[in-house]
Design brief:
The chain is of the alpha+beta class. It has five helices and eight strands; from the N terminus they run H-H-E-E-E-E-E-H-H-E-E-H-E.
Length: 187
């Protein structure tokens, strides 16, 4: 009887180990920045794809803002932006594990903001200048800001407009990219 218990425990341990060894543990972890890194976010599919030039390196499940179907238009709308951005901040002390700041708002967002009266001419100029210089744009305008790719879970659309990954995936992404990495967020 004792041997049957050990066999059952061994089978159980094997099944647990097999379940835990999903695709993420089968791959070699990313330990440093990858050359020619770029990120594509596919909102509809809830996927973030990490490339080195045109070669797909990783694909991660994501959660979005609580208003995920539309692009971000203003502060507090809970929508995730759409467009071309770059990583402008790396935060190793994020309250959401780790985070990568996205250069939202971009010049197209600033143009829309000017047309709709959400930002002033001075804020518009500041956003354009930040993008020319490759630095973080102002995050305190009517367009909103502080949009990050961060950890703390991808299982739901729960953020205020950020892109959320599971912590293990976020660690890999954080290690893989540099400030200036291009980010394209697609519908």
């Amino acid at each position: 009887m004792k041997s049957n218990t050990y066999i059952a425990l061994a089978v159980f341990a094997f099944v647990v180990a097999l379940a835990a060894s999903g695709s993420s543990s089968d791959r070699v972890p990313i330990e440093g920045p990858i050359e020619a890194a770029r990120i594509e976010v596919h909102k509809k599919d809830r996927l973030l794809k990490l490339y080195s030039a045109d070669q797909l390196i990783r694909q991660f499940s994501i959660g979005l803002g609580f208003n995920p179907k539309r692009p971000k238009h203003r502060e507090g709308d809970g929508a995730t932006p759409e467009g071309l951005y770059s990583i402008c901040v790396k935060n190793p002390r994020s309250k959401y594990f780790l985070s990568l700041g996205i250069s939202y708002p971009n010049p197209a967002d600033a143009e829309r903001g000017m047309d709709s009266g959400l930002i002033s001419k001075e804020q518009y100029r500041d956003i354009i200048e930040a993008h020319k210089r490759g630095i973080r744009p102002p995050w305190n305008t009517g367009l909103g800001g502080e949009i990050f790719i961060h950890g703390s879970g991808s299982s739901a659309d729960w953020t205020w407009g950020c892109i959320a990954l599971d912590n293990g995936d976020m660690l890999e992404l954080y290690n893989a990219v540099r400030i200036g990495t291009k980010v394209e967020i697609k519908p």
